Amino acid sequence: MSNKIIYLLLFLGLFSSIAYAVADQAQLKNSFQSDIYEGQINYYNSVKSCQKTTIKLPSLGRDVAYYVYGLKDGKCSIREQLGKLNVRCELPADVAKKYAEEGIRTLNKSVEKGSSYSSYMNQIKNDRNYCEIFIE
Question: Half-sphere exposure of 9 toward its Cβ, with a 13 Å CA cutoff?
Fold first, then answer.
């Protein structure tokens, strides 16, 4: 009888350790996602005002960083580094503001629904009058 109690206690101890490990992983994942979300929101707010900033996101298995170089000749100079993919843009202030607002809207929708897409942002990134895409 005492062996059964010992095995039961060991099982409960092992189960609670697994439950704590799963809870810790979930908390770590939420913290990681929160850091990414906050970084992207900060980036888009900087684009909106064209305020100089550099934002590096937690590692996603590749280098991810966002740069706002500031306003020059009426254009907001930005760079989005997604691993080896670099998008460099010179956006007129009104386009930069709309791009940033759309980025925030899309990000919030993605958090809410799991994914989101912005045809406006895609159109801007693929418009050679605004942006160049490099693979380095």
Answer: 6
Q: Report the run of H or E that residue 27 belongs to, with start and end.
A: helix 2-49
Distance CA(52)–CA(38), nearest Å, equals: 17
Distance separating alpha carbons of residues 109 and 121, to the nearest angstrom: 14
Query: How confident is residue 30, by pLDDT bands cut at 50, 70 and 90?
Result: low
* Averaged pLDDT, 60-81: 91
Amino acid at 101: E
Residue 22 domain-assigned? Answer: no
Phi and psi, residue 52, nearest 5°: -60, 135
Neighbouring C-beta atoms of residue 122, cutoff 10 Å: 10
Residue 62 placed within a domain: yes
Cα–Cα distance measured from residue 55 to residue 93, given in angstroms and rounded to the nearest whole number: 20
Nearest to 88 by CA among 66, 104, 103: 66
Q: What is the pTM of this model?
A: 0.74
- Is 12 contained in some domain? no
Round to whole Å and give the CA distance between 136 and 134.
6
Within a domain: residue 104? yes
